[in-house]
Write a structure and sequence with these properties.
By secondary structure, this protein is α/β, with parallel strands linked by helices. The protein is built from 9 helices and 8 strands. The chain has an 8-stranded parallel β-sheet with strand order 1-2-3-4-5-6-7-8. Helix 3 runs parallel beside helix 4 and helix 5 runs parallel beside helix 6. The chain starts with a strand and ends in a 6-residue tail after the last helix.
Protein backbone atom coordinates (compact mmCIF):
# COMPACT_ATOMS: atom_id res chain seq x y z
CA UNK A 1 0.00 0.00 0.00
CA UNK A 2 1.43 3.37 -1.05
CA UNK A 3 0.51 6.07 1.47
CA UNK A 4 0.78 9.84 1.42
CA UNK A 5 1.33 10.47 5.13
CA UNK A 6 0.68 14.21 5.04
CA UNK A 7 -1.89 16.15 3.02
CA UNK A 8 -4.41 18.90 3.70
CA UNK A 9 -7.88 20.05 2.66
CA UNK A 10 -9.40 23.40 3.53
CA UNK A 11 -12.27 25.79 2.87
CA UNK A 12 -11.48 29.51 2.76
CA UNK A 13 -14.83 30.33 4.32
CA UNK A 14 -13.57 28.71 7.53
CA UNK A 15 -10.25 30.54 7.45
CA UNK A 16 -11.05 34.26 7.51
CA UNK A 17 -7.96 36.07 8.75
CA UNK A 18 -5.96 32.83 8.75
CA UNK A 19 -3.23 31.51 6.47
CA UNK A 20 -3.02 31.30 3.45
CA UNK A 21 -3.18 34.98 2.48
CA UNK A 22 -4.51 36.11 -0.91
CA UNK A 23 -0.93 36.86 -1.98
CA UNK A 24 -0.30 33.09 -2.15
CA UNK A 25 -2.41 32.61 -5.26
CA UNK A 26 -1.48 28.92 -5.62
CA UNK A 27 -3.10 28.20 -2.24
CA UNK A 28 -5.81 30.81 -1.84
CA UNK A 29 -8.82 28.70 -2.79
CA UNK A 30 -10.72 25.69 -1.51
CA UNK A 31 -9.02 22.28 -1.76
CA UNK A 32 -10.89 19.01 -1.40
CA UNK A 33 -10.86 15.35 -2.45
CA UNK A 34 -11.85 16.07 -6.04
CA UNK A 35 -8.69 18.16 -6.45
CA UNK A 36 -6.32 15.53 -5.07
CA UNK A 37 -7.80 12.26 -6.32
CA UNK A 38 -6.57 12.53 -9.96
CA UNK A 39 -3.04 13.16 -8.74
CA UNK A 40 -3.14 10.20 -6.37
CA UNK A 41 -4.40 7.99 -9.20
CA UNK A 42 -1.67 9.18 -11.57
CA UNK A 43 1.04 8.37 -9.00
CA UNK A 44 -0.49 5.11 -7.80
CA UNK A 45 -1.09 6.32 -4.23
CA UNK A 46 -3.60 4.14 -2.40
CA UNK A 47 -4.31 6.07 0.80
CA UNK A 48 -3.64 9.35 2.59
CA UNK A 49 -3.50 10.85 6.08
CA UNK A 50 -5.41 14.13 6.27
CA UNK A 51 -3.66 16.60 8.60
CA UNK A 52 -5.11 19.68 10.25
CA UNK A 53 -4.04 23.13 9.11
CA UNK A 54 -6.30 25.23 11.33
CA UNK A 55 -6.33 25.34 15.16
CA UNK A 56 -10.04 24.65 15.39
CA UNK A 57 -12.19 21.89 16.86
CA UNK A 58 -14.76 22.64 14.16
CA UNK A 59 -12.15 22.04 11.47
CA UNK A 60 -11.26 18.69 13.06
CA UNK A 61 -14.90 17.60 12.99
CA UNK A 62 -15.15 18.71 9.35
CA UNK A 63 -12.07 16.67 8.42
CA UNK A 64 -13.43 13.57 10.16
CA UNK A 65 -16.71 13.89 8.25
CA UNK A 66 -14.82 14.39 4.98
CA UNK A 67 -12.64 11.35 5.69
CA UNK A 68 -15.73 9.23 6.40
CA UNK A 69 -17.02 10.12 2.92
CA UNK A 70 -13.66 9.65 1.14
CA UNK A 71 -12.53 6.00 1.04
CA UNK A 72 -8.87 6.71 0.37
CA UNK A 73 -8.50 9.08 3.35
CA UNK A 74 -7.63 6.42 5.91
CA UNK A 75 -6.83 8.66 8.88
CA UNK A 76 -7.07 12.19 10.28
CA UNK A 77 -4.67 14.19 12.42
CA UNK A 78 -6.78 16.78 14.21
CA UNK A 79 -6.34 19.59 16.74
CA UNK A 80 -7.05 20.15 20.42
CA UNK A 81 -5.97 23.01 22.67
CA UNK A 82 -3.37 21.10 24.70
CA UNK A 83 -3.49 23.54 27.59
CA UNK A 84 -7.27 23.65 27.93
CA UNK A 85 -8.52 22.39 31.29
CA UNK A 86 -10.75 19.84 29.55
CA UNK A 87 -8.16 18.75 26.95
CA UNK A 88 -8.02 15.14 28.22
CA UNK A 89 -11.81 14.83 28.00
CA UNK A 90 -11.81 16.34 24.49
CA UNK A 91 -9.12 13.89 23.41
CA UNK A 92 -10.96 10.91 24.84
CA UNK A 93 -14.15 11.96 23.03
CA UNK A 94 -12.41 12.54 19.68
CA UNK A 95 -10.54 9.25 19.92
CA UNK A 96 -13.84 7.35 19.83
CA UNK A 97 -13.89 8.06 16.11
CA UNK A 98 -11.71 5.34 14.55
CA UNK A 99 -10.62 7.72 11.79
CA UNK A 100 -8.84 9.98 14.27
CA UNK A 101 -5.22 8.80 14.32
CA UNK A 102 -3.39 11.74 15.86
CA UNK A 103 -3.35 15.36 17.00
CA UNK A 104 -1.19 18.32 16.06
CA UNK A 105 -0.78 21.60 17.93
CA UNK A 106 0.57 24.19 15.51
CA UNK A 107 3.84 24.73 17.35
CA UNK A 108 5.63 26.52 14.50
CA UNK A 109 3.20 29.44 14.81
CA UNK A 110 3.78 29.96 18.55
CA UNK A 111 6.26 32.61 19.73
CA UNK A 112 7.39 30.50 22.69
CA UNK A 113 9.88 27.91 21.43
CA UNK A 114 9.42 25.90 24.63
CA UNK A 115 5.60 25.93 24.60
CA UNK A 116 5.34 22.16 24.24
CA UNK A 117 7.89 21.59 27.05
CA UNK A 118 5.52 23.24 29.55
CA UNK A 119 4.22 20.64 32.07
CA UNK A 120 0.76 22.11 31.44
CA UNK A 121 0.75 20.00 28.27
CA UNK A 122 1.31 16.75 30.18
CA UNK A 123 -2.36 15.81 30.86
CA UNK A 124 -3.15 16.09 27.14
CA UNK A 125 -0.08 14.04 26.22
CA UNK A 126 -1.03 11.36 28.74
CA UNK A 127 -4.56 11.24 27.32
CA UNK A 128 -3.12 10.79 23.83
CA UNK A 129 -0.93 7.93 25.02
CA UNK A 130 -3.88 6.22 26.66
CA UNK A 131 -5.93 6.59 23.48
CA UNK A 132 -3.14 5.33 21.21
CA UNK A 133 -2.90 8.56 19.22
CA UNK A 134 0.13 9.90 17.35
CA UNK A 135 1.54 13.33 18.22
CA UNK A 136 2.39 15.20 15.00
CA UNK A 137 5.09 17.77 15.75
CA UNK A 138 4.95 20.78 13.43
CA UNK A 139 8.19 22.44 14.49
CA UNK A 140 10.96 24.67 13.25
CA UNK A 141 14.61 23.87 14.00
CA UNK A 142 14.72 26.26 16.95
CA UNK A 143 11.88 24.33 18.63
CA UNK A 144 13.61 20.94 18.59
CA UNK A 145 15.20 21.24 22.06
CA UNK A 146 11.80 21.95 23.63
CA UNK A 147 10.26 19.05 21.75
CA UNK A 148 13.11 16.83 23.00
CA UNK A 149 12.27 17.65 26.63
CA UNK A 150 8.58 16.96 25.99
CA UNK A 151 9.34 13.65 24.28
CA UNK A 152 11.65 12.54 27.08
CA UNK A 153 8.88 13.11 29.63
CA UNK A 154 6.47 10.98 27.58
CA UNK A 155 8.46 7.95 26.43
CA UNK A 156 5.31 5.96 25.62
CA UNK A 157 3.85 8.65 23.34
CA UNK A 158 4.39 8.06 19.63
CA UNK A 159 5.71 11.24 17.98
CA UNK A 160 6.29 12.04 14.32
CA UNK A 161 8.19 15.18 13.30
CA UNK A 162 6.58 16.86 10.31
CA UNK A 163 8.64 17.98 7.31
CA UNK A 164 11.99 16.97 8.79
CA UNK A 165 11.59 19.95 11.18
CA UNK A 166 11.89 22.33 8.21
CA UNK A 167 15.67 22.58 7.82
CA UNK A 168 17.19 25.69 6.23
CA UNK A 169 17.84 24.08 2.86
CA UNK A 170 17.66 27.41 1.02
CA UNK A 171 20.68 28.58 3.06
CA UNK A 172 22.49 25.25 2.89
CA UNK A 173 22.61 25.04 6.70
CA UNK A 174 22.85 21.76 8.61
CA UNK A 175 23.76 22.93 12.13
CA UNK A 176 22.35 22.93 14.73
CA UNK A 177 19.39 21.22 13.02
CA UNK A 178 21.17 17.91 12.59
CA UNK A 179 22.41 17.61 16.18
CA UNK A 180 19.08 18.65 17.69
CA UNK A 181 17.25 16.20 15.45
CA UNK A 182 19.71 13.44 16.38
CA UNK A 183 18.86 13.93 20.05
CA UNK A 184 15.21 13.29 19.25
CA UNK A 185 15.94 10.38 16.93
CA UNK A 186 17.72 8.67 19.83
CA UNK A 187 14.28 8.21 21.41
CA UNK A 188 12.78 5.02 19.93
CA UNK A 189 9.20 6.27 19.62
CA UNK A 190 10.10 9.39 17.62
CA UNK A 191 9.55 9.17 13.85
CA UNK A 192 9.95 11.70 11.04
CA UNK A 193 8.24 12.63 7.77
CA UNK A 194 10.08 13.03 4.50
CA UNK A 195 7.82 15.86 3.45
CA UNK A 196 7.76 19.62 3.05
CA UNK A 197 11.39 19.90 1.95
CA UNK A 198 10.82 21.55 -1.43
CA UNK A 199 9.03 24.50 0.14
CA UNK A 200 12.08 25.06 2.37
CA UNK A 201 14.56 24.80 -0.49
CA UNK A 202 14.11 28.14 -2.26
CA UNK A 203 16.20 27.99 -5.42
CA UNK A 204 18.03 24.86 -4.19
CA UNK A 205 15.43 22.35 -5.31
CA UNK A 206 17.63 19.94 -7.25
CA UNK A 207 18.47 16.45 -6.09
CA UNK A 208 22.05 17.41 -5.23
CA UNK A 209 20.91 20.14 -2.83
CA UNK A 210 18.21 18.04 -1.16
CA UNK A 211 20.15 14.79 -0.87
CA UNK A 212 22.28 15.77 2.18
CA UNK A 213 19.11 16.51 4.15
CA UNK A 214 17.33 13.34 3.03
CA UNK A 215 20.48 11.34 3.79
CA UNK A 216 20.58 12.85 7.29
CA UNK A 217 16.96 11.84 7.93
CA UNK A 218 17.73 8.33 6.65
CA UNK A 219 20.78 8.02 8.90
CA UNK A 220 18.97 9.30 11.98
CA UNK A 221 15.61 7.56 11.68
CA UNK A 222 16.43 4.56 9.55
CA UNK A 223 14.16 2.53 7.28
CA UNK A 224 11.40 1.95 9.86
CA UNK A 225 10.85 5.44 11.29
CA UNK A 226 10.87 7.59 8.15
CA UNK A 227 7.70 8.08 6.09
CA UNK A 228 6.97 9.96 2.90
CA UNK A 229 4.34 12.68 2.59
CA UNK A 230 3.41 15.27 -0.01
CA UNK A 231 2.34 18.25 2.12
CA UNK A 232 -0.12 18.96 -0.70
CA UNK A 233 -1.48 21.54 -1.45
CA UNK A 234 1.24 23.56 0.32
CA UNK A 235 3.56 21.70 -2.05
CA UNK A 236 2.06 23.79 -4.87
CA UNK A 237 4.25 26.70 -3.75
CA UNK A 238 7.26 24.77 -5.07
CA UNK A 239 6.17 21.94 -7.39
CA UNK A 240 3.31 19.74 -8.46
CA UNK A 241 2.42 16.43 -6.83
CA UNK A 242 3.95 14.15 -9.45
CA UNK A 243 7.21 16.11 -9.40
CA UNK A 244 7.78 15.60 -5.66
CA UNK A 245 6.66 11.96 -5.82
CA UNK A 246 9.21 11.23 -8.55
CA UNK A 247 11.96 13.28 -6.92
CA UNK A 248 11.51 11.57 -3.54
CA UNK A 249 11.85 8.19 -5.22
CA UNK A 250 15.02 9.29 -7.03
CA UNK A 251 16.50 10.61 -3.80
CA UNK A 252 15.66 7.37 -2.01
CA UNK A 253 17.58 5.44 -4.66
CA UNK A 254 20.69 7.53 -3.88
CA UNK A 255 20.73 6.87 -0.12
CA UNK A 256 23.53 5.07 1.69
CA UNK A 257 23.25 2.37 2.69
CA UNK A 258 21.02 1.65 -0.29
CA UNK A 259 17.45 0.77 0.76
CA UNK A 260 16.19 -2.69 -0.02
CA UNK A 261 12.94 -3.11 -1.90
CA UNK A 262 11.16 -3.83 1.40
CA UNK A 263 12.63 -0.67 2.94
CA UNK A 264 11.49 1.44 -0.01
CA UNK A 265 7.99 -0.01 0.35
CA UNK A 266 8.10 0.90 4.04
CA UNK A 267 9.27 4.47 3.34
CA UNK A 268 6.55 5.08 0.76
CA UNK A 269 3.66 3.46 2.59
CA UNK A 270 4.30 0.71 5.09
CA UNK A 271 5.70 2.91 7.82
CA UNK A 272 2.78 5.35 7.61
CA UNK A 273 0.28 2.50 7.64
CA UNK A 274 1.89 1.05 10.76
CA UNK A 275 2.40 4.36 12.56
CA UNK A 276 -1.15 5.58 12.08
CA UNK A 277 -2.69 2.10 12.22
CA UNK A 278 -4.39 2.56 8.86
CA UNK A 279 -6.84 -0.08 7.66
CA UNK A 280 -5.63 -1.94 4.55
CA UNK A 281 -6.96 -1.09 1.10
Amino acid sequence: MKVDAHQHFWRLAQREGQWPPPSLAALHRDFGPDDLEPQLRACGIDATVLVQSLPSAEDTRWMLALAAATPWVRGVVGWVDFKAADAPAQIEALARDPLLKGLRPMLQDLPDDDWIADPACDPAAQAMTQSGLVFDALVLPRQLPGLRRFAARHPDLTIVIDHGAKPFIARGEMAPWRDDLAALAALPRVHCKLSGLLTEAGDRQGDAALLPYVQTLWELFGPRRLLWGSDWPVLRLAADYAHWWAQAQRLAQQLHPAPSRAELEALFGGNAAALYRLPPC
